[in-house]
C-alpha cells in the first residue's frame, strides 16, 4: 500500500514490536530480557536525530526527548527482547529500521526499545506508551508512573501516530457502515479485579 502512495502506518507495542522484528527478519531473534513491571528512561541512539518520531527539532519534541532520557516514564512488561548486537548483525533489520533507543533490563542486558522504518511509516516500542494515562491497577506496581511528564509522553506518541494515520485516504463507504464499526457499539467492562487492565472490551 505504501509503495502505491497509499499511506498505511503501523505501530507495534511490546509483543507487537517483537512481531515487527520477526516479520522483517523472517526469524525469531529474541532473547531473554527481564523487564517486567518496571519503568526506565530511554538511551537515545544517533539515528533518532534523523527520525520522523524525534527528529523534528521542535521545542515540543525536545521536551519529550528530555523527559524520556531522564525520567522513568516508559513502562516495560516483557520477558523477551532483541539486543543491539543481534539487530545490527541482521542485514534485514538494520537496513529496514533505524534503532532509535535502547534500554538495559534488570540484569544489565541491553535491548532495543524503539525502532522506526527508514522508508515506511512503521514504528515499534518495546515499552508501553499507552499505560501512563489509562492503567491504575495495583498489581502493575508502583513503577507505572502517572506524572504530568509521563502523561505528556503518552499524548505525544498518540498524537504522532494519529497524524500519520490522517495521511491515509481510507474511509467507510457511508455513514451507516462507519457507525457500525465504532467501538461505542460495545460495552466497556471494569476488569481491574481480574486482569492487569482497568477496562476491557469483549467482542
SSE topology:
Elements: E1 10-13, H1 15-25, E2 31-40, E3 43-44, H2 59-70, E4 74-81, H3 84-89, H4 91-96, E5 97-104, E6 110-117, E7 122-125, H5 131-134, H6 148-165, H7 175-180, E8 188-190, E9 199-201
Parallel strand pairs: 1-7
Antiparallel strand pairs: 2-4, 3-5, 5-6, 6-7, 8-9
Can you characterise this structure?
It is a single chain. With 203 residues, the protein is of the alpha+beta class. It has seven helices and nine strands. The mean pLDDT is 96. 31% of the residues lie in helices and 25% in strands. A hairpin with an 8-residue loop joins strand 8 (188-190) and strand 9 (199-201).
List keywords for this structure.
2 domains, alpha+beta, two-stranded antiparallel sheet, 31% helix, 203 residues, 25% strand, hydrolase, Rossmann fold
Determine the structural class based on helices, strands and strand pairing.
Answer: alpha+beta
Number of strands: 9
Write out the CATH superfamily name of the largest domain. Answer: Class I glutamine amidotransferase (GATase) domain
Q: Roughly what is the average pLDDT, rounded to an integer?
A: 96
Helix content: 25-40%
Q: Between the first and last Cα atoms, what is the distance in angstroms?
A: 28 Å
Query: What's the CATH first level of the largest domain?
Result: Alpha Beta
In total, how many domains does the architecture comprise? 2
What is the count of DSSP helices, taking H or I runs of 4+ residues? 7
Q: Which percent range describes the beta-strand content?
A: 15-25%
With strands numbered from the N-terminus, the spatial order across the biggest sheet is 1-7-6-5-3
Assembly type of the shown chains?
Answer: single chain
The Rg value, from CA coordinates, equals 18 Å
Largest sheet: 5 strands, mixed
Q: CATH topology of the largest domain, what is it called?
A: Rossmann fold
Q: Do you know the CATH architecture of the largest domain?
A: 3-Layer(aba) Sandwich
Order of helices and strands: EHEEHEHHEEEHHHEE
Organism: Saccoglossus kowalevskii (Acorn worm)
Domain Glutamine amidotransferase: 7-132
EC number: 3.4.19.9
Protein name: folate gamma-glutamyl hydrolase
Amino acid at each position: 500500500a505504501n509503495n502505491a502512495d497509499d499511506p498505511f502506518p503501523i505501530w507495534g507495542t511490546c509483543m507487537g514490536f517483537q512481531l515487527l522484528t520477526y516479520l522483517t527478519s523472517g526469524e525469531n531473534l529474541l532473547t531473554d530480557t527481564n523487564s517486567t513491571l518496571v519503568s526506565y528512561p530511554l538511551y537515545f541512539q544517533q539515528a533518532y536525530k534523523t527520525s520522523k518520531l524525534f527528529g523534528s527539532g521542535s521545542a515540543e519534541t525536545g521536551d519529550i526527548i528530555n523527559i524520556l532520557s531522564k525520567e522513568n516514564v516508559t513502562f516495560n512488561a516483557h520477558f523477551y527482547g532483541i539486543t543491539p548486537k543481534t539487530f545490527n548483525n541482521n542485514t534485514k533489520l538494520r537496513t529496514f529500521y533505524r534503532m532509535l533507543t535502547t534500554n538495559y533490563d534488570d540484569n544489565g542486558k541491553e535491548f532495543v526499545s524503539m525502532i522506526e522504518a527508514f522508508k515506511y511509516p512503521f514504528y515499534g516500542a518495546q515499552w508501553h506508551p499507552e499505560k501512563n494515562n489509562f492503567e491504575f491497577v495495583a498489581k502493575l506496581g508502583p513503577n507505572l508512573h502517572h506524572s504530568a511528564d509521563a502523561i505528556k509522553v503518552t499524548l505525544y506518541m498518540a498524537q504522532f501516530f494519529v497524524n500519520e494515520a490522517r495521511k491515509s485516504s481510507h474511509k467507510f463507504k457511508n455513514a451507516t457502515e462507519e457507525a457500525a464499526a465504532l467501538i461505542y457499539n460495545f460495552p466497556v467492562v471494569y476488569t481491574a479485579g481480574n486482569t492487569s487492565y482497568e477496562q476491557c472490551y469483549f467482542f
